Amino acid sequence: MMFISEFITSLIPITGPFWGKYYEYFSQLMEQLTFEPVIMIIMTVIMAPIFEEIIFRGIIQKGLVNKGVDPRRAILYASIIFGLVHGNPWQFVGAVLLGCVLGLVYQKTKSLLLPMLLHGFNNLCSSMLVTYTKSESFADAFKISEWIILVIGIVLFSLFYYLFMKKYKVHYSEI
Question: 142 pLDDT exceeds 90?
């Protein structure tokens, strides 16, 4: 999902009277977070996945399903809220898409552990990318087109979706 969201995010402007100032403000906030790599890793790879998954999948999504909301709608609603909480359009896209995947995984497994681990892995990839390339873009880091990133993202997502949803059915037991 990171590759797909990167392509979509690349379409959001980063210049202009409104977008330019907002992007600059957001960039400064991100620089403060990434100034100390150890703190960034602890916050983004360990703390955020644990607390965010408890809130967005464990409380919001599960709460909506328990109230009778269709699971697909509950996943979408929790994911949109997850995206909004990130507070900027450049992270909104990725957060909503990631939220949908994590919500689906939670719905299938009935466990927060796998969404937490996947969320942590996603954030680790982003953190390493920012730490070592000073960019949040795989296209910039690998000097390739955003279109290639999109194609890679679609292929990888399709493969993992097929394996997770179709080929290897996830089984769980209610306690």
Answer: no
